[in-house]
Amino acid sequence: MATYNISLADLRQDIAGVIPAGLVLSWNGQEKTSARHEQLLAPFRTRGTLVSTDSAGLSTLSQRYNLAQVLKLVSEPKEVLHSYGTAIGGEAIGIWAADNSQMFFAEAIAPSRVVMQMLAAQARVKALRVQVGIGIHACECYKVAGGLFGAGADFIEEIAEDATSGGEIVLSEAILEHLTGPVRDAARVREDLQGAVWSLTGYPGHVDAVEGDNPHYPTPFDAAFFQRLRSASLEELGKEEFPEYRKTRTVAFVKVAHGAHEFLLDSFTDMSLIDLAVRRIASSHGADVVKSNGSLAIVLFEEGREAFAFARDIIEENRALGFNAHVGLAHGEVYLFPLANGEREIAGHPVNVASKLAEDSGLEGVLVESSVGLGALAQQGEPFRLTLSKVELNGRRFPV
C-alpha cells in the first residue's frame, strides 16, 4: 500500500470537507481547555427546536420502481414538510438527500407550534405513497458550515433514523414539557427506547397549523430535474431515461467510525483527517469523489478492481489514523446532479446497496456486492448473503 502520511498540516493545502480548516487548526495549535473550546465555538452556538425525518421503505421502493420514480415518491413528503416548516419560520438544514430531512426553528418559535406544524404535515403525508418518521428535540447546538452539530443534534438524528416508523412523531422530554392539553395527553412513552422519549401517532384532535406554500426544499438535484419530478406523473417518469444525468459506475461507499470526545472540536479534527485521507487516496486511484464529509464518502470508479484497491487503502489508512472504516462496493446506473453551489449529488440503487453494506451489515473488511466485476480476484473473497431492509444482497467479503 502507498504511504499517504495524512496530517493536520495538510489542511493548509487541502479542502477539509464541511469543517472550516481555520477552526480545526486554531483548536489544535494551542492548549486544549474548556475555556478555549467555548471561545472558539461561541460564534456558532445557537438554541432552538430541531426536526429530523426519515422515510420508510426506500430500499423496497428501489426494487419496484426506476430511479426517477423513486426520487419523485421520496420528494413528495419532503415538499410537504418544507412547506409546513418554513410557514412558521423554520430553516432547512443541509441538502435533503436520500430520504432524510432536517429543519431548525429558532428559540423564539414555540416548540408547541413546531409540533402542531409537524402533526399537520403528517396528516398531509398520510395520503402519499411514502410515509415518514419525525423526531423533534429542543437543545443547544452549533451551526457550522450549513450543518448542525452537538450531542442534541446527534441524538434526534439517530432517533429519526433508527427509532421512528412511518406516520410517527417522536418527542424528547425537552419538547413534551412545552405541550399542554390533548396533544400532551396523546403522547405515549416509548418504553423500548433508552431515555425519556414519547410517541405521537394518528393524533385525532384538532390541529391549528399554517399550511405554507414553499415546497422548494434544498434538493439533491438541479432545478430542471426537480421541476420535471413535480410536473410528471409516476407513469411518465417510468418511461424517461434522463441521459444527461445517467452514468454507469462502481460506487464505493465509505463509512468511518471515530470515538466520542469530550470536546466537539476534537470530533471536527477527526472529521478533517478522515476527509483528507479520502481525497488523497481517491486522487491516487484516479477516482471521482462525489461527497466526503469526514464521516462518510461516496467515490466513483470506472471499474471494480480499482474501486477494490481504493477500499483496501482507505481501510488501512484509517486504521493507521486510529479510525475504523467500512466500505461497500456496488455497480450499476446512477444519476449525477450538478448543484447551484458547484457541488454534486448522487442517487441510484448502487448507492443504496453500497451504503447498506458499509453501514448496516455489521461485517468488517471490504464488502463487494455481486454486481461488481473483480475477475479472478473475486475467488479470494468469502461469500456472503444478507437481508437488509427486506432486500437480499450477496457478494464477497475481503478482510483487510
What distinguishing features does this structure have?
8-stranded mixed beta sheet; 13 helices; about 35% helix; globular; about 400 residues; alpha+beta
Structure description:
It is a single chain. This protein is of the alpha+beta class and 400 residues long. 36% of the residues lie in helices and 27% in strands. Strands 1, 2, 3, 4, 5, 6, 7 and 8 form an 8-stranded mixed beta sheet that branches. A hairpin with a 2-residue loop joins strand 4 (132-144) and strand 5. It is globular, with a radius of gyration of 22 Å.
Beta-strand segment tally: 16
Question: Ranges with pLDDT <50 over ≥5 residues?
Answer: 12-16
Overall geometry: globular
Overall pLDDT, averaged? Answer: 92
Number of distinct helices = 13
Radius of gyration: 22 Å
Q: What oligomeric state is this? A: single chain
Q: What share of residues are in beta strands? A: 25-35%
Given helix and strand content, the structural type is alpha+beta
Largest sheet: 8 strands, mixed
Q: Give the CA-CA distance, first to last residue.
A: 12 Å
Could you write a compact summary of the structure shown?
The chain has 400 residues and is α+β, with helices and mostly antiparallel strands. The protein is 36% helix and 27% strand. Helix 1 (21-28) crosses helix 11 (264-284).
